[in-house]
Every structure is written in C-alpha cells, then in structure tokens.
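Severity: low
Component: inverse-folding endpoint
Summary: output formatting inconsistent between runs
Steps to reproduce: submit the following structure tokens with default settings.
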C-alpha cells in the first residue's frame, strides 16, 4: 500500500506538470498574437529576427526563474505544513517511519528549478520558432494565424503518425518482455499513448467541424457558429489537448481505483471467512486449538500457520531452471468447505476442485507475485527445503494476494507444522447459530489468559482494511481533481485572452438583430459541444489507460493483476465533467458579454 501511495503521488504529480505545460504553451501563443503589431513594427524598423527571438528568450528565462523560485518556496512551505499530518497517517496506517521535519538536499532544489525551466523552454519552443520564422509581411494579415494553423495541423498529422508508430513499437517491445517486468517502459507507453491521442485531437476536431459546416449550410446561424468555432480552434486546440489528457487519465485512474476497491473488498470477504480470529503465541494456540475442537458451540475452525523455506530446484514444463532466491514465506491454511468455497484462485491446471484436492495431497499454491516474478505456472514442481532434508511439491494453483509485496507459498496447516517446522499464527472460529458470543469470548480470555485485543472481530478487520484503502487513494482523487482544475484554467485563460476579439464578431450578429440571449447561449453551446467531442475521444483513451494500469503497470509495480472493470457512472461522470469544465470556463466571458451595453458591443465592432 505504501508503494501504491508513492506511485500514485509521483505519476499524478507528473501529470499535473504536463497539463500545466499545456497552459503555459497556450498562454505564450496568445501573448504572441497580442504582440504581433509590436513585433511587426520592430521588424519593419530593422530589428533582426534573431535579436527579437533572443530578447523573448531572455524575458522567458527571467520570468520563468522568478516563477520557479516562487514555486519552490511555496511548495516547501506547503510540504512543511502538511508533512507532520502525512507522516502520522503513514505511520499509523502502514507503520512507515517518516520524518516529521522537512529536510531536502541541495540537488532537490536545483532539480525543481531545472524541471520548471526545462518545461518552460519546451512549451515555449513553438512560440520562439514562430517569432524567428514568421514572414514580416504576414505579421500584419488577419489570415496569417489561420494559415499558420493549417500548416500546424499538417505537422500534427505527421507527428501523430510517427507517435502512433512509436506507440505500437513500444507495445510490441513490452509484449515480448517477461510478465511483471518493464515498469518504466509501461509508463513510457502510457505517455506515448497520451501524446499520440493529443496530437491527433486537433486534426480530428478540424475535420468534424468542416463536416458540420456542410451539414448546417442551410441554417445560417448554425453554420456561422460552426465556422466561428473552427476559427477559434487554433487558440483552443492546446486547451482541448490538456482537457483530453486530464479526462482520459481521470477515467483511467478512477476506474482502476474503483475496480481495485471492489476486488479488494471481495477478496477480504473471501479470505476472512471466520467471524472471530484469535491471535496469541504459538505455545498458546496449540492447546487452544485442541480445546476448541471439543466445544459443541464451535461450527468450524480455520487455523493458519506461518513458516519459511527455500526453493532449491524448479522443474518446469517450459524447461527453464530459474530458481527463486532467498527465503520464501510459507502460509498454512485448513482447506475446509467454509474456506475453499470462497478462496479465490486465479489459475489452476484442472479446475478449482482438483486444485484443492491436490493441496491436501502435498501440493501447494503460490501467489501471483511469485508466479509473475519467476514465470511459474500450475503443474511446475518446486523442491523445498525442510528440516529433515528436501521435498518436492507440485504447484496446484495460483491465487491473488493483494497487499503482499513478497512471494508466498500456501500449503495445509498440518503439512507446514509437521514437515516444515511452521508454527500456528491465528485460529479462526465460526460459532453455531444461537451460540452466546459474549460468553464464548469470556471463556477464552479466562481459560487461556487472553486479552481482549487478542480476539479480533472479522468486521473490525474489514473496517480497518477499508479505512487504510480509502485513505491511501484519497490523494489520488485529490490530484485527479487538480488536473481537471488545471485543464479548466487553460480553457478560461484562452477564452479571456480572446474575449475582446470575440465581442467584435458578436457585435456584428447583434447589429443584424440576433437577441442577446442567443449571443450568450452560442458560445456556451460551441464550447460545450467541443468539450463533449473531446470527452468522447477521451473515453476509449481512458479505457486503454485503465487496462494498462490494471494488467501491465500494476503487475510490474506490485506483482498482482487486477480485473478490468468499467463503471457506467464513471463514464457518465466523464461526459458531464467534460461539458461542465467547458461551461464553467465559458461562464465568465459570457457573463461579461451579458453585462455589456449595446453601445459597448457596437464600439467593439468598430475598433
């Protein structure tokens, strides 16, 4: 769980940085447009393009350095405020020792500034290239932006094709690696997939808008709205790319966490099949287990045992001789119907019933962590060390073991305690219907001198485990919201920057008799429709990211595979969020338009 906590923090923090870079790039592009007249004048006066570009670069570095310094200082302040609470939470939930005081080496400071400035230069590279290469005469033409955007779309199509081939190459490379390996390559594949879809989005939107223009050619206002939307696309494309990435990642992570939650709770129900568990020293559990067998009120006993062994040889059907190194934990269970009917098995050789029968005949189960790490399958034979020598055991099944980062071998309690020197760890007790639970607990505590903490209720264990899970992934939900907020900020920044030019276009419609309510509704419908299209494109991308997270990254990072689960509520939330973010960003410009006087609109149209 701690590894999952850190992985979520790192991945989503990086995602927030990427989405933020889209905002920077959009803001720089709009700033470039607003300074076109100044740049035209300077170029006409003889200022070389190289000097103008160098001046812009120095300006960016100065502002970026100030922003990076402010970001580092504010980030350290926030970290110092939140660190004590986070450290207490990690210590109480996972027994992880975290310092309560913030202490960062110098290279963390320099690394933060370098990442910021590097991202700034990457985001500004397109703007600097336009300033260095744009024709001085084209700077004064209104259609220059549109012409440049059409060239940009062609470059995006080419880059999208190259990115698609790269993504397919990475997927092919990853498919040839052993299961459970290639964590960094998996993250690279996710990044390549996001980049590919982001590059393909503007050309797709442009093609759809062209098609809608033909569809609405007989409805003047609708045709104008689509044409106007196509005219705004050069300024909105980066914001829509940021929104696509934020929505797809939000769907992928939310579906993964939701599926993990359902699988985890179901796994708890399956593994914790006894209503009461007794924790005590092995010397106490032995006599206690014998005493419980004679109690009429006891319906079933589910003792567990623990031990360890080493694997000295592996005989595989594939012929590989890779031997798991070091000590392997052993876990003993009692294969009674109350347990076997619910214990999940992810892979067997001849069915669950045969696997449980094989377990009682000196077979073993291994968890997914061990199977993925060493390419083991049911039917392979392990040679295990025991105090009296060694013994061969055939793998009868593979089972999911969520939350355990280590390999583990399961066998019966009798086999573990009698042949491998294991000791009893817990005893699960199921009482008959109508039995007095309070009286039974008092008898146990008095007869075996047990404390109340030694008797653990099943519901208490589930509640603690569920609390740990929810608190582990609460930061994931917060960062998901942050990325969506950053995407909304990108849209809002873009709309505010072009609000004045938009009023010039709308003033013409107002002068032709279009009601103000319609003028306010048109931008909302335009941006809401564009965001809805982006959300539809984000849907298959989010599903692909979900599959990569549960079937590839989770296996490589933690050693277990989660089932792919999609939730209609999450998909509906994705669509509502896409439109809601767009409408929220458009609300302020539309409100300003609603508040504008007719004379102001006409004056905007004449300027």
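Observed output (run 2 of 3):
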């Amino acid at each position: 769980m701690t590894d999952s906590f850190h992985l979520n923090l790192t991945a989503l923090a990086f995602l927030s940085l990427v989405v933020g870079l889209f905002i920077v790039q959009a803001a720089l592009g709009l700033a470039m447009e607003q300074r076109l007249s100044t740049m035209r004048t300077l170029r006409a006066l003889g200022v070389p393009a190289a000097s103008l570009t160098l001046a812009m670069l120095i300006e960016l570095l100065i502002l970026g350095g100030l922003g990076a310094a402010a970001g580092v200082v504010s980030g350290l302040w926030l970290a110092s405020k939140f660190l004590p609470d986070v450290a207490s939470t990690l210590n109480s939930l996972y027994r992880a020792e975290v310092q309560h005081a913030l202490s960062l080496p110098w290279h963390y400071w320099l690394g933060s500034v370098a990442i910021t400035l590097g991202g700034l230069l990457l985001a500004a590279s397109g703007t600097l290239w336009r300033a260095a290469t744009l024709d001085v005469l084209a700077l004064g033409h209104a259609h220059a932006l549109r012409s440049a955007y059409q060239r940009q779309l062609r470059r995006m199509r080419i880059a999208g094709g190259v990115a698609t081939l790269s993504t397919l190459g990475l997927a092919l490379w990853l498919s040839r690696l052993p299961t459970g390996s290639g964590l960094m390559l998996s993250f690279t594949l996710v990044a390549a997939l996001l980049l590919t879809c982001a590059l393909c989005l503007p050309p797709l939107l442009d093609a759809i808008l062209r098609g809608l223009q033909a569809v609405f050619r007989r409805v003047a206002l609708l045709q104008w709205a689509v044409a106007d939307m196509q005219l705004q696309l050069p300024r909105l494309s980066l914001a829509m790319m940021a929104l696509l990435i934020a929505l797809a990642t939000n769907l992928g992570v939310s579906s993964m966490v939701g599926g993990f939650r359902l699988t985890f709770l179901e796994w708890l129900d399956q593994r914790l099949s006894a209503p009461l568990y007794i924790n005590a020293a092995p010397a106490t559990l032995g006599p206690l287990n014998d005493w419980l067998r004679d109690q009429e009120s006891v319906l079933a006993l589910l003792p567990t045992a623990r031990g360890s062994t080493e694997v000295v040889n592996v005989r595989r059907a594939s012929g590989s001789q890779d031997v798991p190194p070091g000590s392997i934990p052993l876990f003993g269970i009692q294969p009674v119907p109350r347990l076997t009917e619910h214990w999940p098995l992810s892979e067997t050789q001849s069915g669950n019933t045969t696997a449980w029968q094989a377990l009682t005949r000196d077979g073993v189960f291994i968890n997914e962590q061990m199977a993925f790490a060493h390419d083991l399958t049911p039917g392979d034979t392990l040679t295990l060390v025991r105090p009296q020598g060694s013994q061969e055991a055939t793998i009868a099944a593979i089972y999911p073991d969520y939350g355990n980062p280590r390999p583990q071998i399961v066998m019966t309690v009798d086999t573990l305690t009698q042949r491998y020197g294991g000791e009893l760890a817990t005893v699960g007790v199921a009482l008959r219907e109508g039995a007095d639970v309070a009286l039974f607990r008092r008898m146990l505590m008095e007869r075996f001198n047990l404390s109340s903490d030694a008797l653990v209720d099943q519901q208490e264990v589930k509640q603690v485990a569920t609390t740990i899970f929810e608190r582990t992934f609460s930061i994931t939900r917060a960062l998901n919201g942050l990325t969506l907020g950053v995407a909304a900020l990108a849209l809002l920044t873009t709309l505010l920057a072009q609000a004045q030019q938009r009023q010039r276009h709308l003033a013409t419609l107002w002068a032709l008799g279009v009601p103000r309510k319609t003028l306010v509704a048109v931008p909302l419908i335009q941006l809401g429709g564009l965001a809805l299209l982006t959300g539809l494109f984000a849907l298959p991308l989010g599903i692909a990211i979900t599959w990569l997270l549960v079937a590839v990254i989770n296996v490589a990072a933690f050693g277990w595979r989660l089932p792919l689960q999609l939730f209609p509520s999450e998909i509906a939330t994705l669509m509502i969020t896409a439109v809601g973010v767009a409408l929220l960003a458009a609300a302020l410009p539309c409100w300003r338009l609603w508040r504008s006087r007719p004379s102001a609109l006409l004056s905007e149209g004449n300027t």
